[in-house]
Amino acid sequence: MNFADFVCQGAIRTGIASTDKQSAIREMTTALQEAGAISEDQLESIVEAILKREELGSTGIGRGVAVPHTKHPTVDRLCGAVAVSETGVEFDSLDGEKVHLLFLLVSPPDRPGDHLRALENISRQLRNDTFCRFLKQSATPEDVWQLLEEADNNQFAS
Amino acid sequence: MASAQRISQPNQVRGNMVVRRTVTVVTADGVHARPANLLSRLASRYQSHIFIVRDHDRFDCKSILEVMMIAATKGTELLVEADGDDAEQAVAAIAQLIERDFPELLTESPIGQHE
Hints:
The structure holds 2 protein chains of 2 kinds.
Chain A: E1 7-14, H1 21-34, H2 43-55, E2 60-62, E3 65-66, E4 69-71, E5 79-89, E6 99-107, H3 112-126, H4 129-137, H5 141-152
Parallel strand pairs in A: 1-5, 3-6, 4-6
Antiparallel strand pairs in A: 2-3, 5-6
Chain B: H1 2-7, E1 17-24, H2 33-43, E2 49-54, E3 57-60, H3 64-68, E4 77-84, H4 87-99, H5 103-108
Antiparallel strand pairs in B: 1-4, 2-3, 2-4
C-alpha cells in the first residue's frame, strides 16, 4: 500500500498550532472532515474513539512520530490525515520524546488488513532518516504531498 | 538435541545456539500497533538478538517500527529466531505471546470496540 492510497490530500496540515495530544487529534480529525473524508456529525464520535485508543497505550512510536487511529463504522474506506508540528506535540510517546510527524488513520471495522498495510507503509518509509527529516521540515501541505509521492515512487528506498 | 547442535554449528565459536520456532498469527486484527509494542517490549528484556522472519524478510523484534512492518494478518506464518545466551527462553516467550493471542490486549482494554 502507498501513501496515496490512504492519505487524503486535503487533510494535510503543516505548522499545526496544537501542542497537546487531545487538540492535535481534534485538529487532524477536523482536517479529515474539511476534506470530506468523514461527515461532520461523526467528528466528535471519531475524536473520542481515537482518544480512547490512546488510553490503551500511546501511538507515539518513537522517532518523533505518532500514528493515532481508530476503527469507525461510518467510513467505508481507510482515510488518513498527516500533520507536521515544528514545536512538537506532547504525546506520551514510547521514547518520551515530543512528536513532530502525525499520521491519523480511520478505518472501516471490517478491513483490518488495510490498516495493517498502512502501518507497514508508514513504518517502512519512516525508517529512512532522509525522508523523516525532509517531512519534518515541510513548510506547506504541497511539500508534504510531494514527499509522500516521492516515497511512493521508492525514491527513499533504503 | 543432536540435531539442534548441528543447526547451531556456525555459532559455536561464541558458544551460542540459534533457536527457531514457527508460529501462526491467531489475532483477528493481525499484528497491529499494540501487539507490535508488546512484542518489542518483551523482546527487549532478552540479551539475545531476536528476529521475526516472514517469507524472506527478517525484522528486528526489539524495534516496534520493524515489527509493524511485518503487517502480519490472521493466519500468517512467522518464524521466530533468536541468537544468544537466552535464545531458548526468548523464542519460547515471543512465540507464546503470538500463539496465545496477546492476552495483555484483553486485560488492557476496557472497550473492545475501539481498536
